[in-house]
């Protein structure tokens, strides 16, 4: 896994608005980083270009903003390119005396990974001199292969920058290459320097120091944007059980410093939290596994995992599409995972009552009532085999707290749902295995998110293996391999 520098675009500078150009090689899948140096009497932060993400901003250098003196601001924006990307526009308020803004786009390429991850840290040097050194305030995690972009905003334009460098305790950086050393004459002027490099060895969490040698004395701010190839991903696999359920696996968390995960089921534009997968603390874990036993049937869905890293950055990864199919309608227990194949015979007749009292006030009738109740309904169900009839009897007898999940063969959100069982009537026939069931229920909310649906059990392992040696032979890797295996 390697991140490589592709090119840097031409400079764009003005007193308030710039539109930097992409360099050659700005193709889909690559990462564009826009580094902006600015200065304004109000110390304004540049606006985020449309379609880009802000990756950090900092103003430093001390003193009062003026010609060749005082603070300058360093800002990073990022965008994963999709092809034929519009040039970005960013601006600071106009009309400020001496205001200036300048920016350039660097394009990077990765050799592997599932995406891009980044974090930033900034510092300042308020002591005018030729040895520029900015101790950054935010500790970043470091690993071999991490790429860095160093940005410098120096208060004076009429000097040069060289020997750009970065250091962090226990971390070895390879060659740092200067990419930009530009004097900006707009407004109160600035020096814009840019350099790139990578971590060659070492790992840990350290606040870096960004340094350079100036040809004359000045002050300013500097920042580092640490960029990494993402390893985290989410996949969904159908388990070979009935009723259908999907094993959702969020993996590669340690390498991306992910400390919290929330998993959603995406049906069209709707995002529904997967049971027991909201805000899960994954500190020190490399994977999060959840079983989704409530997915719609006959409908293509995918899963989205929102990942939060140690620096508070949030990332979203998506699984491929998956469709759960069955040969009929399903009544199941969403927690235990048991269920039965049925045929829903009649339309839902939803009745809602409203507890109310009528008062005669001076000859005028006044009705005072409570909000109407949840809908009650009667399902008429048919099972066509003894196996399915017995399975439905098991669900009705032992559903967790009497809560049923009813889904059509091809789900409809207005009909599918969770229902509390009131009573049921079974009517078996004398001449075949058919049974008719009358089930009276009341619509209820889904189970609370903290309850996890059943996955595989120790009995599943016992049914498939005779000895511990058999298990070790079948899973020579880690315990995660067992957790992700489909025991059927």
Q: What overall geometry do the principal axes of the alpha carbons give? A: elongated
Q: In DSSP terms, counting alpha (H) and pi (I) runs of 4 or more, how many helices?
A: 4
Termini gap? 36 Å
Average pLDDT, rounded to a whole number, is 93
Structural class: mainly beta
Low-confidence stretches: none
| Biggest sheet architecture | 7 strands, antiparallel
How many runs of DSSP E, i.e. beta strands? Answer: 34
What is the gyration radius calculated from CA atoms?
Answer: 31 Å
**Helical proportion, percent range:** under 10%
What does this structure look like?
The protein is mostly beta strands. 7% of the residues lie in helices and 50% in strands. It is built from four helices and 34 strands. The strands form eight sheets. Strands 9, 11, 12, 13, 14, 15 and 17 form a seven-stranded antiparallel β-sheet that branches. Strands 1, 2, 4, 5, 6 and 8 form a six-stranded antiparallel β-sheet that branches. Strands 20, 21, 22, 24, 25 and 26 form a six-stranded antiparallel β-sheet that branches. The longest helix is centred in the C-terminal third of the chain and has 13 residues. The model has no long low-confidence stretch (mean pLDDT 93).
């Amino acid at each position: 896994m390697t991140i490589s520098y592709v090119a840097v675009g031409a400079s764009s500078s003005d007193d308030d608005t710039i539109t930097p150009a992409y360099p050659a090689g700005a193709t889909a899948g690559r990462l564009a980083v826009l580094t902006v140096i600015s200065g304004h009497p109000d110390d304004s932060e540049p606006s985020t270009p449309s379609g880009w993400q802000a990756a950090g901003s900092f103003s430093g250098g001390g003193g009062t903003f003026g010609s060749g003196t005082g603070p300058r601001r360093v800002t990073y924006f990022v965008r994963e390119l999709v092809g034929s990307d519009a040039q970005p526009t960013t601006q600071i308020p106009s009309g400020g005396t001496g205001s200036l803004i300048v920016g350039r786009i660097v394009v990077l390429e990765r050799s592997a990974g599932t995406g891009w991850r980044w974090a930033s840290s900034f510092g300042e040097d308020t002591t005018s001199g030729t040895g520029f050194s900015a101790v950054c305030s935010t500790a970043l995690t470091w690993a071999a292969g991490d790429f860095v972009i160093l940005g410098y905003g120096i208060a004076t334009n009429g000097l040069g920058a060289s020997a750009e460098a970065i250091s962090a305790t226990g971390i070895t950086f390879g060659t740092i290459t200067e990419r930009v050393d530009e004097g900006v004459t707009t407004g109160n002027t600035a020096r814009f320097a840019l350099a790139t490099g990578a971590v060659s060895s070492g790992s840990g969490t350290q606040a870096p120091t960004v340094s350079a040698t100036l040809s004359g004395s000045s002050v300013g701010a500097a920042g580092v944007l640490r960029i990494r190839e993402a390893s985290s991903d989410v996949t969904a696999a159908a388990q070979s059980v009935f009723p259908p359920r999907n094993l959702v696996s969020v993996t590669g968390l340690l390498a991306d410093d992910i400390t919290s995960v929330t998993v959603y089921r995406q049906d069209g534009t709707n995002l529904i939290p997967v049971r027991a997968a909201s805000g899960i603390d994954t500190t020190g874990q490399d994977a999060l596994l959840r079983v989704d036993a409530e997915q719609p049937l006959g409908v293509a869905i995918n899963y989205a995992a929102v990942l939060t890293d140690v620096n508070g950055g949030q990332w979203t990864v998506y699984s491929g599409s998956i469709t759960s199919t069955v040969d009929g309608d399903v009544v199941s227990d969403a927690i235990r995972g048991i269920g039965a194949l049925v045929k829903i015979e009649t339309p839902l007749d939803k009745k809602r009552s409203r507890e109310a009292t009528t008062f005669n006030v001076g000859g005028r009738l006044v009705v005072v009532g409570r909000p109407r109740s949840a809908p009650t309904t009667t399902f008429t169900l048919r099972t066509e085999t003894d196996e399915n009839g017995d399975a439905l009897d098991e669900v009705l007898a032992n559903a967790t707290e009497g809560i049923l999940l009813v889904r059509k063969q091809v789900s409809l959100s207005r009909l599918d749902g969770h229902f509390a069982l009131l009573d049921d009537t079974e009517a078996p026939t004398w001449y075949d295995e058919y049974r008719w069931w009358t089930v009276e229920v009341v619509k209820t909310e889904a189970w609370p998110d903290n309850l996890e649906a059943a996955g595989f059990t120790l009995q599943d392992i016992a049914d498939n293996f005779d000895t511990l040696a058999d298990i070790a032979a079948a899973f020579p890797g880690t315990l995660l391999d067992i957790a992700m295996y489909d025991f059927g």
